From TrEMBL:
Record protein name field: N-acetyl-alpha-D-glucosaminyl L-malate synthase BshA
Domain of life: Bacteria
Residue ranges of domain Glycosyl transferase family in the record: 190-350
Pfam families given in the database record: Glyco_transf_4 (PF13439), Glycos_transf_1 (PF00534)
Gene3D superfamilies, sorted: Glycogen Phosphorylase B
Domain Glycosyltransferase subfamily 4-like N-terminal: 11-178
InterPro entries according to UniProt: Glyco_trans_1, Glyco_trans_4-like_N, Glycosyltransferase_grp1, Thiol_BshA
């Protein structure tokens, strides 16, 4: 099929999922057109059947806010006409589903019908989308999508609770490509980051409030008093500066490494022992799944879709949001018992394989076929 994919091109779960999905679909022979304001971060190689169309929004001083939806829907109409695109797949409802709806309307005027699939990712529903300022338009554009998918059962339930949805919401979980994860990187840099006797705890996120970065630091501070360990913090975001300040205040700068954004997190995860994700809310927790496919045990909060990925007592442990005591206790249990840690790591890998892209991709292909047939 010929598909247009709209997503946020930056580091962040929804953009990563959309990009990896597009790449995998292209490998299966589909023609993929990414339409967004920057080349997606994980899209390193463009090939014959992967195209990128940049949405350009010129700055005009009259506008306090530049009209991105307008530029996006114009670009979508032009691209869909030029390449005879058959299906439009938008990731993250805001503002993509809204721009997608306008695209459909404009094309309909010319006798072209394009089905739109909207994939909900989390914050577009739970944190931003249901704000009274956005809710009406988000509700409208979800209902105007031809098919709606959510990345977890938890997100589906949140969507049905927070909005008046008339469409069926299909759950298609996020995925990893297990073929991409070896465990034998010859260039693993473990020794540069930690001594042999030190355990490695890793956190990856966009350092937003919802990730509860202070819980990661506090938990690690207490853990390293008991067991020699290093903390590797990957990502960028508003809470990072405060986290660096706290680490300095606690006197543990020699034990905490801030690495910034990275396209190669698997090269760190492949030698990590514990992945820590104490989020306030998480509709799926793709970063935890990426850790698990690298054989890393997960210490997380028990919120949103996380329990659908991190299984209590199997792949890691889950605690109530903000229960740092319990997270410390669980981490120490694992770090002090080498055999148990190894078992959890192996089980984490096995559960992650349930989310292999080869199992999930056909679910999207079915949705595309159905949407195209019903058009
Ligand atoms: O977590 C974020 O702040 C980023 C956000 C995004 O849209 O990129 O992540 C959401 O989508 C991811 C991919 O589906 C999920 O794995 C994350 O759990 C979800 N984040 C939240 O629900 C907070």
């Amino acid at each position: 099929m010929k598909l247009a994919i709209v997503c946020y091109p930056t580091f962040g779960g929804s953009g990563v999922v959309a990009t990896e999905l597009g790449i995998a679909l292209a490998q299966r022979g589909h023609e993929i057109h990414f339409v967004t304001y920057k080349q997606p971060v994980r899209l390193e190689l463009l090939s014959n059947n992967i195209h990128f169309h940049e949405v350009f929004v010129p700055e005009y001083p009259l506008f306090h806010y530049q009209p991105y939806e307008l530029a996006l829907s114009s670009k979508l109409v032009d691209t869909i006409k030029m390449y005879d695109i058959e299906v439009l797949h938008v990731h993250y409802a805001i503002p993509h589903a809204y721009a997608g709806y306008m695209t459909k309307k404009m094309l309909k005027e010319e006798g072209i019908y394009i089905p739109m699939i909207t994939t909900l990712h989390g914050t577009d529903i739970t944190l931003v989308g249901n704000h009274p300022f956005y809710r009406t338009a988000v509700n409208f554009s979800i209902n105007k999508s031809d098919m709606v998918t959510a990345v977890s059962e938890s997100l589906k339930n949140d969507t049905l609770e927070l909005f008046d949805i008339t469409k069926e919401v299909h759950v298609i979980p996020n995925f990893v490509d297990k073929r991409k994860y070896g465990h034998n990187y010859t260039d693993c840099q473990r020794s540069l980051l930690a001594n042999d006797d030190e355990k490695i705890i890793t956190h990856v996120s966009n350092f937003r409030k919802v990730k509860r970065i202070p819980d990661v630091i506090e938990a690690f501070y207490r853990i390293q008093q008991e067991v020699p360990a290093k903390l590797i913090m990957i990502g960028e975001g508003p809470e990072k500066e405060h986290a660096e300040f706290t680490v300095e205040k606690l006197g543990i700068t020699d034990r905490v490494v801030f690495l910034g954004n990275s396209n190669e997190i698997d090269r760190i995860l492949c030698f990590s022992d514990i992945f820590m994700l104490p989020s306030e809310k998480e509709s799926f927790g793709l970063s935890a799944l990426e850790a698990m496919i690298n054989k890393v045990a997960v210490i997380s909060s028990n919120t949103g879709g996380i329990p659908e990925v991190n299984r209590q007592g199997v792949t890691g442990f889950l605690s109530d949001v903000g229960d740092v005591d319990d997270m410390v206790k669980n981490t120490l249990t694992l770090l002090r018992d080498e055999e148990m840690l190894e078992t959890f790591k192996t089980q984490a890998y096995e559960v992650a394989c349930e989310f292999d892209i080869l199992k999930i991709l056909p679910m999207y292909e079915d949705i595309y076929r159905l949407a195209y047939k019903w058009r």
